[in-house]
Design brief:
single chain, 203 residues, mainly alpha, two-stranded antiparallel ribbon
Length: 203
């Protein structure tokens, strides 16, 4: 398996193209391992996904993975699930999408089941609040990392400026988040209509 300048080549160690069944299995394994440690939410899974899908299994190009993750964030719903469907379908078609869905849902389901059954017992442990506080701090760092990573992919100054303006409107001016999202979407449509497709647009 190797990653070339033109993208990710899904080759086995023997130099042969990986079968769809193998890619589906590797997608499932990667998502199960990643989501088992997604304590801080879907936004924190990007570094783990890059490590598993790009660096370990060589299933998808790093830039393409980040692009799908960013698109998953832009869509309504669960970020990990949205991105997983897009990534899984890119790698192995609809079987890959289903494998990614299973990898996203199963760790969360069994984790919540375990917490539900044991919460009364473990809620009295003092160190639990310390663990939650530490994980919350890690989530802040990971969300910031994701923002820098996705921003670094943008080859268009317009989108960088738009992101900074959106941050100012939400953080400093206190604008409604939904209004900011709609305005940014409208600005993107207007820019594309006036200037046409450019760098930073989805392919």
């Amino acid at each position: 398996c190797c990653v070339s300048l033109t993208g990710c080549s899904c080759m086995s160690e023997g130099g042969q193209e990986k079968s769809r069944a193998r890619k589906t299995r590797e997608l499932l394994y990667a998502y199960l391992k990643t989501m088992a440690f997604a304590f801080t939410g879907g936004s924190a899974t990007l570094p783990l996904l890059i490590q598993q899908l790009t660096e370990k299994y060589k299933l998808i190009d790093r830039d393409k993975l980040i692009e799908y993750f960013a698109l998953g964030q832009a869509l309504p719903g669960v970020i990990s699930l949205n991105a997983g469907i897009l990534i899984g379908r890119e790698v192995a078609g609809w079987p890959g999408a289903l494998a990614a869905i299973a990898g996203c849902v199963l760790p969360a389901f069994f984790g919540m089941l375990l917490i539900t059954l044991t919460y009364t017992f473990i809620s009295g442990w003092g160190f639990i609040s310390g663990v939650i506080g530490g994980i919350r701090a890690a989530s802040i760092a990971l969300i910031l990392y994701n923002a820098i990573l996705i921003m670094g992919m943008s080859k268009n100054v317009f989108y960088v400026v738009l992101a900074l303006l959106a941050f100012v409107c939400v953080f400093f001016l206190g604008w409604n988040v939904i209004i900011v999202i709609l305005l940014c979407g409208a600005a993107g449509v207007l820019r594309r209509r006036v200037l046409g497709p450019g760098k930073g647009d989805l392919r």
